[in-house]
From TrEMBL, chain B:
UniProt keyword terms in alphabetical order: Membrane, Transmembrane, Transmembrane helix
InterPro entries: LipoPS_assembly_LptC-rel (IPR010664)
Stated name of the protein: Lipopolysaccharide export system protein LptC
Keyword Transmembrane among record annotations: yes
UniProt xrefs under Gene3D superfamilies: Lipopolysaccharide (LPS) transport protein A like domain
Lineage, top ranks: Bacteria, Pseudomonadati, Pseudomonadota, Alphaproteobacteria, Rhodobacterales
Entry annotated with the keyword Transmembrane helix: yes
Transmembrane domains' residue ranges: 33-56
A Pfam family annotated for this UniProt entry: LptC
Length: 141, 226
């Protein structure tokens, strides 16, 4: 079963420019890969996704970016909500982020833990799949 | 007295001669026209002929012979090579050609030369091509070519890079920029502190590494109409 939770407040525009900052970027022509390494931060609208390593997957006709694969411990912040996971697959064209590997979603009111989370940036909703557990903080109003 | 045959002949001859030598009756219109023509026509021809030489525009010898206005003393004083071409094949099989408008050897040390309007091309064994254009270049000791002054690099990978200074090693394929670099390519606009192009030794793939802080801006919608 899955829990769908509003995430990140206002909707993000899918065609907004994506900005990636990192320490290093290696573009190799042989296998057509481009890999950002060294505290990489992907930003679009008010969403920030940071990870130590991000690999770029080109579109079929090599004219742009199709997906960004972040790995090695990912944190995603949007508005006052934040999510952490081991890996994140950000489909730039569709505006969908799929985070896998003990996902921890912390929102002002509650915290959710699950194996996998699908985040729709445009609609601003997060869908948690797998074993979803809620961590209640007694005493927090 | 002369024989009878001589007399008629003589009289006949005398009357014909007599006609041509002294004109008794006035000339006919046509004869007068011919007489005048014999005077006027040569004069006209003389006039025409003179316009060719007397009236013609004076050709100025100085302007008609084009000659370059370069500073001859400078050319003589400064030993320079025009359109020098330097070509080399690196250990990993890439061909490098460096050429320029002019190259003047460095008086300080003999194996260095500074060149103006430099153009360098590197073709790796995998067929990837890098073309760099710069205002000034130096080749130091058959090892490194340094290009300086808004260096503009285009690569067959679809990237175009601009930087202030760049070095290309002549022994192996390695391009490194010594200044900040702005690049534009399939990934979008990239700004980085340094950029280095090298060939991986095992796979022989050409890798472009942006270092010292990289910032990429990618516009999803704009790539469709590029």
């Amino acid at each position: 079963q899955g829990t769908s939770v509003p995430f990140g407040g206002m909707e993000g525009d899918r065609d907004a420019p994506v900005e990636v900052t990192a320490d290093q970027l290696a573009v190799s022509d042989a296998d057509d890969t481009a890999i950002f390494t060294g505290n990489v931060v992907i930003g679009q609208n008010d969403m920030r996704l940071s990870a130590p390593r991000v690999e770029v997957i080109y579109t079929a006709d090599q004219s742009g970016i199709s997906r960004l694969l972040a790995s090695g411990g990912v944190t995603l912040v949007s508005g006052e909500d934040a999510a952490e996971a081991q890996e994140a697959d950000y489909d730039v064209e569709a505006g969908i982020v799929i985070m896998t590997g003990d996902v921890l979603l912390t929102q002002t009111a509650n915290t959710l833990v699950s194996d996998r989370m699908r985040l729709d940036l445009e609609a601003g909703t997060a869908q948690m799949d797998g074993r979803v557990r809620t961590v209640l903080q007694p005493g927090r109003e | 007295m002369a024989g009878p045959c001589a007399l008629p002949y003589g009289r006949h001859m005398r009357t014909r001669l007599h006609a041509t030598q002294s004109r008794t009756q006035p000339l006919s219109g046509y004869s007068r026209f011919v007489a005048w023509a014999k005077i006027l026509l040569p004069l006209a021809s003389l006039a025409l002929l003179s316009t060719v030489f007397l009236v013609a525009r004076q050709a100025d010898p100085a302007k008609s012979i084009p000659f370059a206005k370069t500073d001859v003393e400078a050319l003589a004083r400064e030993p320079r090579v025009t359109a020098p071409l330097y070509a080399a094949v690196t250990r990993d099989g890439a061909t490098i050609t460096v050429s320029a408008d002019t190259a003047t050897p460095d008086p300080a040390s003999e194996d260095q030369a500074t060149a103006r309007k430099v153009w360098a091309r590197i073709q790796t064994s995998e067929g990837i091509e890098y073309n760099a254009v710069a205002e000034e270049g130096r080749i130091e000791g058959n090892e490194i070519a340094i290009l300086r002054g808004n260096v503009d690099i285009t690569t067959s990978l679809g990237y175009r890079l601009r930087t202030e200074e760049m070095t290309a090693e002549l022994g192996m394929t390695r391009l490194t920029t010594r200044a900040e670099v702005d690049a534009d390519g399939p990934l979008g606009e990239i700004n980085a502190g340094r950029m280095e192009v090298r060939t991986e030794d095992v796979t022989n793939a050409s890798v472009m590494v942006f270092k010292d802080g990289v910032r990429l801006i990618y516009r999803p919608s704009s790539t469709d109409d590029r």
